[in-house]
Amino acid sequence: MGELVWRWLNGENTALADFGAATDTTNYALCVYAGEVAMPAGPKWHLAGRRRFKFKDPSRTPDGVQASLLKSGATGHARVWVKAKGENVPDSLMPPLPLPVTAQVVNDANLCFEAVYGAPDVIRNDARQFRAKTQ
Predict the structure, then answer these.
(1) The pLDDT of residue 135
(2) Is there a cis peptide before residue 62, judged by omega within 30 degrees of 0?
(3) Is residue 24 a contact partner of residue 96, using CB atoms and an 8 Å limit?
């Protein structure tokens, strides 16, 4: 059983409207060059305050995503993160991963949050965990 966590921190200027309608029609996916995990629009999403959407799925279906956050904010304050774990996470996303690793959270409204991790960024990349931080 694996776990997948991706965080896009200190992002560019992002308004809440840029995230679309996650609670209704805007679908999201975390794509790592080898595959993706889906976060479909609907009741698993909720508006949390005036600046963020949260996704929560204790059953982790269909692709193991347990929680996600889309936080709007000025440059340096916007954030996106995804946490997936369990047997529903696609095997192709389990480490070790060949470098470079490109990770993106994308939605069907053509919004993309991306990070690319090369050798200097990698903290750990073994059978248990891939962990990296952009410089």
Answers:
(1) 67
(2) yes
(3) no
> Is the sign of the CA dihedral 84, 25, 77, 97 positive or negative?
positive
Please tell me the chain's helix, strand, coil percentages from 3-state DSSP, rounded to the nearest 5. Answer: 5, 50, 45
pLDDT at 1: 54
State the 10-residue block means of pLDDT for the chain, 135 residues long.
80 91 93 88 96 96 94 94 91 87 90 91 88 81
What torsion, rounded to 10 degrees, do the Cα atoms 49, 115, 86, 130 define?
Answer: -130
How far from the centroid of its chain's Cα atoms is residue 19's Cα?
Answer: 13
> What is the phi/psi pair of residue 19, to 5°?
-80, -10
Sheet containing 28-32, strands listed edge to edge, beginning at the edge strand earlier in sequence: 35-39, 28-32, 101-107, 112-117
Listed by start position, the domains of the chain span 2-132
